[in-house]
Amino acid sequence: MEKTKLKKLLINTAKILVSIVLLYFVFKKIPFKDVAQLWSTVNVFYIILAAFFFLASQVLSTKRLEFYLDSNNFNLNFKSNLELYFLGMFYNFFIPGGIGGDAYKVYILNKKFGWSAKKITSALFNDRLSGLLAICVLILCFSAFLFEVQWVLLIIGLIILGIGFTYFLTKKIFSTYTEIFFKTFAISIIIQLLQVICFFLIMKSLGVHDNFTIYTVTFLGSSILSLISFAGIGVREMLFLQASKYFEFNASISVSASLLFTVITAFFSLFGIIFQLRKLNLNLREK
């Protein structure tokens, strides 16, 4: 147990260091005063709208997890699931050196209801896997608009291959979730599109009106690479900075938009502290 805690601490420390180093290099190229100046010009209406779409994506993510829990006959009601989800967000964002959000869910559900920690972990893993698959599929879909027509068939083939392989993997290793695979995948696509709309609105708030396809691909790509940093901070900004060298978009604006997305994430992650302070009260659905 002590070795596990030490390993987790080292991984989280490494992620924080990655974020710090990447932000250092980003702000060497783009002074933070430039970012602050851009923030002072934002259209607040679009930011509020962006926050609404981000919140919608998180609520829908809660519903997706509910399907995975239900597959194991873990019938947590939606309100309890939502509170636990936001508390997990809080742990992930504001307590990087402590217990992770997913680990906390496993601990609290196992302690409260005596549910199998292994089954809860598998539900959370497949929930994440579904989201990852959706991101990869959307990256390929949006990338199709950036390539010439002859590449479209290859992209379609890769999408079919990716979905097929993930379905086969689920059926072979996690057969419990086979029946809900396509349902949860469809939900994952909607969740990611809601976050894309959120980022699109943030860009609009900063006065951007074109190049949305490459912005979208870069944003989705940063969601995958965010695994190597703390809450994706630093990775998104560095990826946008590097992409600006090859595509025609303003590096300062894209980095500013990326940081605004992080601010919105942090804002909703703070909701979790409400449930932390007033003691989490989890209940099952009434039959």
TrEMBL record:
Signal peptide limits: none
TM region positions: 6-26, 38-60, 84-104, 125-145, 151-169, 181-202, 214-235, 255-277
Membrane disposition: Multi-pass membrane protein
Cited InterPro entries: L-PG_synthase/AglD
Keywords: Cell membrane, Membrane, Transmembrane, Transmembrane helix
Subcellular location: Cell membrane
NCBIfam families in the record: flippase-like domain
Name of the protein in question: Flippase-like domain-containing protein
Species of origin: Chryseobacterium oryctis
